[in-house]
Amino acid sequence: MAAKWIEKVTGPFEDKKRWRQYKARKDRLPPGYRKAIDGLERYPMYAGPIARGDVFLQMLEDLADLIERAAVDETPIRDIVGEDPAEFAEAFLQNYADGQWINKERLCLNNTIKEAAGET
């Protein structure tokens, strides 16, 4: 009973476990790749906030998979992100649009206009 109440306030324990696992994976990366993933991790927090924690964690885990594979293959960072890292980050974020808060607002706007137009 107490665990459910605590999770209601702090979020799912499983998400916290996934976050710690992601951080540990990131810490094991070589310095240049770690620096790159730090920047790529920070960008969506400002450019495309993801409101759902599970979607954000999945995005980070997928990003870690990509960067880990690049590190193992010794793929240069620029070969991963290209000449415009922001463009790469935004394209990467498009795969996780389901968790972005703006989708909820788009749905709300569409429903409001339908209602106003008498389409419901």
Brief write-up:
With 120 residues, this protein is an all-alpha fold.
CATH architecture: Orthogonal Bundle
Listing every helix as H and every strand as E from the N terminus to the C terminus, the arrangement reads HHHHHHH
- Classified in CATH, the superfamily is c-terminal domain of poly(a) binding protein
Helix content: over 70%
Q: Give a quick account of the main beta sheet: strands, pairing sense, barrel closure.
A: none
Number of domains: 1
Termini, distance in Å? 41 Å
Which residue ranges are poorly predicted, with pLDDT under 50 across at least 5 consecutive positions? none
Q: Tell the overall outline.
A: flat
- The SS-based structural class is mainly alpha
Mean of residue pLDDT? 84
CATH class: Mainly Alpha
β-strand number:
0
The CATH topology corresponds to c-terminal domain of poly(a) binding protein
What amount of the residues lies in strands? under 5%
Q: What's the alpha carbon Rg, rounded to whole Å?
A: 18 Å
Protein name: DUF1048 domain-containing protein
Organism: Arthrobacter sunyaminii
Pfam families: DUF1048
InterPro entries: UCP029876
